[in-house]
């Protein structure tokens, strides 16, 4: 068992969690807002609690920020909080994706290997992430 808090944002779709990481100002909340507008739920914005449970990493929100997301130039917005969710995917906004069909990448969180995607910078990226959360990636 392990637990920790990290600077990141997390949304979920159908109980499958996506952790969005990157430096301050990289667009974590903006990507989360776009995903929420397309049906994802907000687990946590800015700080995410990660807890290892068996072979899963569960993401949740600190109570002090649960149900809130920052929108630059607008302010703090209320959001219906999603339940804690097991992570299935990590997006790193700090690293640009240059491959059209990238190799499978992974990252380790609390000893668990999770699929890692880099930032494509394309307008279809949010839709592709949601499709990944719904159906996975073809081998």
Automatic annotation (TrEMBL):
InterPro entries linked: Hpr_kin/Pase_C (IPR011104), P-loop_NTPase (IPR027417)
GO molecular function, one term: phosphorelay sensor kinase activity
GO biological process: regulation of carbohydrate metabolic process
Keywords: Kinase, Transferase
Domain of life, per lineage: Bacteria
Keyword ATP-binding: no
Domain (HPr kinase/phosphorylase C-terminal) ranges: 5-80
Alphabetized SUPFAM superfamilies for the sequence: PEP carboxykinase-like (SSF53795)
Pfam families in the record: Hpr_kinase_C
Protein name per its UniProtKB record: Serine kinase
Organism: Pseudooceanicola albus
């Amino acid at each position: 068992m392990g637990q920790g808090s990290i600077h990141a944002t997390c949304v979920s779709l159908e109980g499958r969690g996506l952790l969005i990481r990157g430096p301050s100002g990289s667009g974590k909340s903006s990507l989360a807002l776009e995903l929420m507008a397309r049906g994802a739920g907000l687990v946590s914005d800015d700080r995410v609690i990660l807890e290892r449970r068996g072979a899963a990493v569960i993401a949740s929100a600190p109570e002090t920020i649960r149900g809130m997301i920052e929108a630059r130039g607008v302010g703090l917005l209320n959001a219906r909080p999603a339940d804690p969710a097991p992570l299935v995917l990590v997006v790193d906004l700090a690293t640009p994706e240059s491959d059209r069909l990238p190799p499978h990448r992974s990252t380790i969180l609390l000893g668990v290997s999770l699929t890692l995607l880099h930032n494509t910078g394309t307008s279809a990226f949010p839709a592709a992430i949601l499709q990944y959360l719904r159906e996975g990636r073809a081998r």
